[in-house]
UniProtKB/TrEMBL annotation:
A Pfam match: Aminotran_3
Protein name per its UniProtKB record: Aspartate aminotransferase family protein
CDD domains found in the cross-reference section: OAT_like
PROSITE patterns linked to this entry: AA_TRANSFER_CLASS_3
PANTHER family, sorted: ALANINE--GLYOXYLATE AMINOTRANSFERASE 2-LIKE, PTHR45688
Gene Ontology molecular-function annotations: pyridoxal phosphate binding; transaminase activity
Keyword vocabulary terms for this entry: Aminotransferase, Pyridoxal phosphate, Transferase
InterPro entries: Aminotrans_3, Aminotrans_3_PPA_site, PyrdxlP-dep_Trfase, PyrdxlP-dep_Trfase_major, PyrdxlP-dep_Trfase_small
Gene3D superfamilies, A to Z: Aspartate Aminotransferase, domain 1 (3.90.1150.10), Type I PLP-dependent aspartate aminotransferase-like (Major domain) (3.40.640.10)
Lineage: Bacteria, Bacillati, Bacillota, Bacilli, Bacillales
Length: 442
């Protein structure tokens, strides 16, 4: 059944809308499990690119959706608002740090939310330039891809007002050493970028991922984000955090920057915000989002159904203590992965916070040559054995582990056993590489 469906799907769905790692056709999903059209069940470590933070098919969200749709299926909040959007905005403001006046903008995806940043921050600051980081992934619309520094967007020419600087990657330090990594990146920004192509008095904002997600689940040095905040305050530059993928509890706190007591000027949310429904948000200083009337709006933004789903999702995260679950089980997951690292030389690095984890594969640990084909093979073999994982990174060699925050230790043990088997099968050349090559991912 799956193969027949996938052939039909390939005839009508554009390739520009696809990233495929294995031949799965989904029938249903519940909790942490996905069932294929062939009836096979998979433990999902992807959460659909981190969207299913509370798991699939949560009964509370299902009930809330039915209730909201029957009561009010739609109103365009742009011109005829209703209470749900206000309640959601109040909740987002409450969980986001900062004792200054804040407002909320609502959209449909991380892309249009980062487009909001690309448009409004320069306008609000009356400065033309923005700074982002190499390896960053902020979206696929023109504004958001302009902010991005990922190879997936390199074929497009975005806005020329964005300057990209190296992300402080401890495993692959951009300046060749790790002992002064924070100093090196920030000195490069101040001594080179600010003095040549991007003067601070012309720079409106710096946008960063607290953990660089699609760039390879890279965790910066502990002192980097606090010192970046200090630099932004010194030059009166807005500091924006893209929390689309790692926000809302995934790292063991509401937001990745909460680990460092950093207070951003704007926070971008998406993916897991709607419990599976499309909704995004920007929570920012009032002066950023009030810079103009009707200058970044979409007819269905903040619609009552998606807003209701989002409100319920945030309440579930609190009621079910999913942030704590992410912290505790994330630590356990990392410990088990580090044991695998001791066993297999191809595992060059294991890193992450909470349930945002990256496993970087290399050909050997001395050269750190990226092992992209082996990474694809592991993901494919895991699929064959009943586990879903994707790979990311600018070298396509990082296994991304972003499961639903509801995952249990027993399920983590199952995932580790399948990963172990997959590495063993790769070592013994039991994986059909011809099949793997059909699913190049990205």
């Amino acid at each position: 059944m799956s193969q027949t469906f996938l052939k039909a799907e390939d005839q009508v769905i554009a390739n520009s809308l696809k990233i495929r790692f294995f031949p799965i056709a989904v029938q249903s999903a519940k909790g942490t499990r996905i069932t294929s059209q062939n009836g096979a069940e998979y433990l999902d470590l992807t959460a659909g690119w981190a969207v299913a933070g509370i798991g699939y098919g949560h009964p509370r969200v299902s009930s809330k959706l039915k209730e909201q749709y029957e009561s009010l299926s739609f109103t365009s909040q742009l011109s005829a608002p209703e209470p749900t959007i206000v309640s959601l905005a109040e909740k987002l403001i409450k969980i986001t740090p900062g004792d200054f006046p804040k407002k909320v903008w609502l959209g449909h995806s991380g892309s249009d939310a980062n487009d909001c940043i690309a448009k409004l921050v320069p306008l609000a600051k009356n400065r033309t330039r923005m700074i982002s980081f190499m390896g960053s992934y902020h979206g696929q619309t023109m504004g958001s891809l302009s902010l991005s520094g990922h190879p997936a967007q390199s074929q497009f020419i975005g806005s020329g007002n964005v300057i990209k600087i190296p992300y402080p990657n401890p495993y692959r330090p951009p300046f060749g050493e790790t002992v002064r990594l924070t100093d090196q990146v920030l000195q490069y920004l101040e001594q080179e970028v600010f003095k040549t192509i991007c003067p601070p008095e012309q720079t409106a904002g710096i946008i960063i991922e607290g953990i660089q997600s699609d760039g390879g689940l890279i965790v910066p040095p502990e002192d980097f984000l606090p010192r970046l905040e200090m630099l932004c305050r010194r030059y009166e530059i807005s500091l924006i955090f893209d929390e689309v993928k790692v926000g809302l509890g995934r790292t063991g706190k509401w937001f990745s920057f909460d680990h460092y007591d950093v207070v951003p000027d704007a926070v971008v949310l998406g993916k897991s915000l709607g419990g599976g429904l499309p909704i995004s948000a920007v929570v920012a200083r009032k002066e950023i989002l009030d810079v103009g009337t009707g200058i970044h709006m979409f007819t269905t933004s903040g619609n009552p159904v998606c807003s209701a789903a989002s409100l319920e999702t945030l309440q579930i995260i609190e009621d079910e203590r999913l942030i704590e679950n992410a912290r505790v089980n994330g630590e356990y997951f990392l410990e088990q992965l580090e044991k695998l690292q001791e066993k297999y030389e191809w595992i060059g690095d294991v890193r992450g916070k909470g349930l945002a984890i990256g496993v970087e594969l290399v050909e050997d640990r001395h050269t750190k040559a990226p092992a992209a084909e082996k990474t694809a093979a592991i993901c494919y073999r895991c699929f064959e054995l009943g586990l879903l994982v994707f790979y990311v990174g600018i070298n396509s060699n990082v296994i991304e582990i972003t499961p639903p925050l509801t995952i249990s230790k027993e399920e983590i043990d199952l995932a580790i056993s399948i990963l172990d088997q997959s590495f063993s099968d790769l070592q013994e050349q039991k994986i059909n590489m011809d099949l793997v090559k059909q699913y190049a991912g990205w």
